[in-house]
Design a protein that fits this description.
With 147 residues, the protein is mainly alpha-helical. It has one domain. The protein contains six helices and three strands, in the order H-H-H-E-E-E-H-H-H. A three-stranded antiparallel β-sheet has the order 1-2-3, with no helix packed on it. Strand 1 and strand 2 form a beta hairpin. Helix 2 crosses helix 4. It is globular, with a radius of gyration of 16 Å. Bound molecules: zinc ion.
Length: 147
């Protein structure tokens, strides 16, 4: 395996493990987006639909005024974000909360449960239990963030 391949491989299988090490650096949403982008596409963003490499970046503001980072494929026109196709998809929780949950679950020596996670993150029970399920599944599959 060449250096580049090895790095790519490690980025994929060890995603969650590596997140645990750097959670402290991922204290804001912007840093999380950058981090996932580099992790998923170390050689540049690739379209999640067609695999195209010509991507344009669209910076817009969501309903709450927070910046949204959209990518648009110039070949198939698909629009996607760093969350598309990952365990973070279809979730309204900030990525910072996700990373915190991953760190908590990954580093907890006792069995983590939804009630404990709910208290630690200050979210609703339903949110906590869905987070827990997705993250445990990712950890069991060797840290694979993509679904
Ligand atoms: Zn495409």
């Amino acid at each position: 395996m060449t250096g580049a391949h090895l790095e790519n491989y490690l980025a994929r299988v060890g995603a969650v493990a590596r997140i645990l090490d750097i959670t402290n650096q991922l204290s804001d949403e912007e840093a999380c987006v950058q981090y996932i982008e580099k992790l998923r596409w170390p050689d540049g963003v690739v379209c999640v639909k067609c695999g195209g490499k010509k991507i344009s970046r669209i910076s817009s503001r969501g309903k709450t005024g927070k910046p949204r980072h959209l990518y648009q494929c110039l070949a198939c026109r698909a629009q996607f974000t760093v969350r598309t196709g990952t365990i973070f998809q279809d979730s309204h929780l900030p990525l910072t909360a996700w990373f915190k949950a991953i760190a908590l679950i990954g580093s907890s020596t006792r069995q983590m449960n939804a009630t404990r996670l709910m208290r630690e993150l200050d979210v609703q029970y339903r949110t906590a239990s869905s987070l827990l399920l997705r993250i445990q599944k990712a950890l069991e599959s060797g840290g694979q963030l993509e679904v």
